[in-house]
Amino acid sequence: MKPPACPRAFGPPLGRARLKQVAEDFQVEEILGFTPSGEGEHVFLWVEKRGRNTEDVAAELARFAGVPRRQVSYAGLKDRHALTWQWFCVHLPGRREWPWHDFRGDGFAVLRWARNRRRLRKGALQGNRFRLRLRDFDGDRAALEARLQQIAGRGMPNYFGPQRFGHAGGNLAKAAAMLQGEKVRSRHHRGLYLSAARAAIFNQVLALRVEAGCWERALPGDLLMFDDGGTFFRAGGIDAEIETRVARLALHPTGPLWGEGEGAAGEAGAWERRAVSLWPELAAALAREAGMQRRPLRVWVKALHWGWEEPAALRLSFTLPAGSYATGLVHELIETGEETP
């Protein structure tokens, strides 16, 4: 079972380059959006890691602190093949201080820490700041810079990246088996597989609308989300005010994270029904397992800057909201020989 293809919104790739030749070529820094209070049962740790995945570091952190794995949390998974800075949280009720400066190992170290009254939950981020280096670019520099200008002004498709589907899409196949009754004991893996299934249907909706040229327009029946991601509303008819706010990136059309509940209506709903018709068994099983949620079809790439290093290396820096993928930007620009977006 393969994830749906992700057609490009801005035209064919404008060249080739190499990504992630070394960890420093793909840097990610979490933006928490609030400051830990300095007191409480939960310890927030700012961890630098290189060449390690988030779940492995969380397990080592639990062993170091002498607590069950369930007492360690993080806001989001970060790429193994990267240099990343992210927050972890350890629940230590009744404990005093701990020698956190000693928590270091192969590819990771604690840089600072602070207490907080509440646990760090998944998705509890304002966003992520990215710094990428694309090496050995072979293509049209002027055309690539023009496309970057377009994306800065219009946003880009908010596809789930290949990381969501696992190696060669394996998480999607495991999701299908799980939803048909195969037992998965690990809560972590069950969550990964469920997310992969919902991502497949979302990407299918977005792919259909990209191919039709309506991924960045509000359609009758769309559920439109404010750019801060907090709330959304149903658009019956599309008036000039809505069109203006969508054009200014203040509102975004959304797609379904499939589950039980009501989706889009009207013309927008027709695209969702068409996508679901391509994944009928997955959609039916998801409706029994989860509630319907929404995700923007478009993401605003904020603070987008670029420059060139010799020989032929493109530097990119930008921020994205939590849950959006930097590889989606690369996908709209070039080919890398890797799975994108």
Automatic annotation (TrEMBL):
GO terms for biological process: tRNA pseudouridine synthesis. It is an enzyme of class 5 (isomerase). GO terms for molecular function: RNA binding; tRNA pseudouridine(13) synthase activity. Its EC number is 5.4.99.27. It comes from the Bacteria. CDD domains: PseudoU_synth_EcTruD. Transmembrane segments: none annotated. Keywords: Isomerase, tRNA processing. PROSITE patterns: TRUD, UPF0024. InterPro entries: PsdUridine_synth_cat_dom_sf, PsdUridine_synth_TruD, PsdUridine_synth_TruD_CS, PsdUridine_synth_TruD_insert, TruD_catalytic, TruD_insert_sf, TruD_pseudoU_synthase. Residues 155-299 form the TRUD domain. SUPFAM superfamilies: Pseudouridine synthase. Responsible for synthesis of pseudouridine from uracil-13 in transfer RNAs. Belongs to the pseudouridine synthase TruD family. This is tRNA pseudouridine synthase D.
